[in-house]
Each structure stands twice: as structure tokens, then as C-alpha cells.
Specification:
By secondary structure, this protein is an alpha/beta fold. The protein folds into three domains: 9-75; 84-223, Heat Shock Protein 90 (2-Layer Sandwich), CATH 3.30.565.10; 237-375, 3-Layer(aba) Sandwich (Rossmann fold). 45% of the residues lie in helices and 17% in strands. The protein contains eleven helices and 13 strands. The strands form three sheets. The chain has a five-stranded mixed β-sheet. Strands 10-9-11-12-13 form a five-stranded parallel β-sheet, with helices on both faces. β6 and β7 (212-217) form a beta hairpin.
Length: 376
Amino acid sequence: MLDSAEPGAEGRSSLLRQLAHELRDALSPLASSADLARVRNFDQEASRLLAQKVERGLRRALAILDAFVLAEQCENGALQLAMTRLPLEQIVATAREALRGPDRARCRFVSGQEGTAVRADPVRSAQALAAVLAHATAVGPPDSLVDVQICGTAAQPQIRVRGGIDPEQTPGDAWFATWRGGETGLPLRTARCLMRLQRGDLELVIGQRGEWELVVSFAGEEATTDRARREPLPSQQAEPARSGQMVGAAGETIVIVDDSREVRRAYREALVALGYRVIEAADADLALRALDEANPQVALIDIHLPRMNGYRLAQTIRARAGAAIYLVMLSGMALDAVTRDLAREAGFDECLDKMAGPIALRELLLKRNSLGNDEG
């Protein structure tokens, strides 16, 4: 069962207020940075610093948006999960890697039950555990260690996280009350929802002397039946390029399909500077016309298009052009396992976060071209 505080009108209002607060915190420093650059007449150093701060601020803002969308999906029970069988140690390792250097160093992994297998969504479970580890390091005394141990039973495996006691950080239900995240961007409230959606849980256990543990529970192999693991997109495995497909070289033609003029223009300007020929299309009809008239080698396609969405467009292009064109999904949302599965089923070769930018697209295409050369 999900958290009893369902986001009705009052809950949604609170969520929006906290979202607005988080976004203001992330974006407000950009105005000051721009003012400083103006005072210094946008000299080379000031421009460099401004670009860095703009990039950091935008990335933080997008991470905040992703976290709040995930929170809303979790609490409404609308989140789709990619459940599979995997060792619990894999979730622990992934969560640890998600932490920043100092927090990672403060996590001490205590030997426990090795080889424990669970049924879980590996991405979402690692997100939830990373949020728990980040919270444990944040509320403990400076430089204190956080103990992490795999334990529990075969039917209900657990990861127990024990931190230090800080008199100013009283453990209690307030830890699960907010949608505001910590360093990982994910609050304990959402982490708990993620675990409960997977038939697990996240609980706070407080001892008589104020010591505490955060216990992350999973559904064990005995509790559920297994099903086939979903195959990842080509971006997640070393798959050779399709026969005869040579992409990624400057001079190729790329069609950008997005109903946002600003997104199309930003990508076009950068890709042209990188040596590509670029055609813009605001919808599926214009994209299909470009396919017939310009014979592009690459199509960069947004999903949320008017009339025909990006998935349908990808299927149509693949049916017409076969392997002759390289399809890249341009996503404005977090690229989770479900999104990647849908993209693969529609015929996309790759997925790209809009925030990754044109240089990331070039690297993706060059890498694919290199694989094609190796095959040749």
C-alpha cells in the first residue's frame, strides 16, 4: 500500500509550492552570474564562468523536475516498473556509485548475506537506496560513517542502513513528509513509494537511545515468479551496427523533428557548426517529406509531437527506409528502462536526453560510425 497521504488538491498544491521553491533555488543564481558578466563586459573569463553556471543551474533544474514528476507518478500509482531478477549486491553497488565522492567514502559496507537475489526494478531500486544513503550521510555528524548491510530472509531480503546520531537531526516521520530531495534529488518520501510499488518497503526503526536504522525491504525470489528480462536498447550493450550503415561523420544530413522552434534552432546551430547538414521539421508530415526529398542519414525525433507522436513516426520511417536511416529518440523526460523499451520497440536505435546537447549526439554518431567501420 502506498503512503496514506495521497496527493489530492491540497497535496498537489503543496507539491507545486515545493517544486517552485526548488526551481527558484536552482535558477535564481543565474541572474546574478549574468549581471557579473555584464559588469565585466563579457570578457572571456566572465563568459566561461557564466556558461558553467548556466549549465549547472539548468541541469539541476531538470533533475528537480524529473524528481517531482517521479514523485507524482509514484504516489498516483502510475509509474511503470521493469521488474527483473538480480543480485542485491548489484543494487547496492549502483546506488553507491550514484553518490558524490565524500558521501561515497562515508558509506561502510558491512559483510552480510552474499548472493541474495531479489525481484526488483534495478534502476528505481538503486535510486531509492541512493536517496537513503545520501540522507543517512546528511543527517549524521560530520565525518561519521554510515553502515550498510545486506540481511533479512529469502522471502524478504533487506538492506539496513545505520547512521550516526546528531542531536539536531531527530529521526521521525518528518523525514518522509517532504518532496524536497537531497544531493540525489530524490526524497525519502519518493524512495518509500518506489519500494512499496515493488512489494517492498522503506521503514525507519528507532532504538531506545535514539539510534536509528533505515530498512529497505525487497520481494525475494520465493515471493514472486520470475519473468524474462527485457533487452536493453543498443546504447546499453555492445551491438554491431546494421549492415551497410555508416553514421556519425560530419557532412551527413540530420533531420530534427520537434514542435519547439527553440529546441530545433539550438540543435541546428550547434550541429551546423560541427559540420552536419541539418533540416528542421515541426511535425511528422514535414519529417516524412524531408525523408523523401533530402534522404537524411539520421533522424532526431521528439516523442511529444502534434497528431502523430514520435513512436508512430519512428515506426513509419523504419517501415519506409529500413536500416538506411539511424533513428535517435530525443527525450525531454528521464530515460528510464520503460522509456528505453518503448523506444526500442518503435524502431529507435538510440535515446538522447534533450539536455545532453548536440555534442553528445555527435559523440553518439561517431561511436556508431566506428562500430560500422569495425564491422566493415
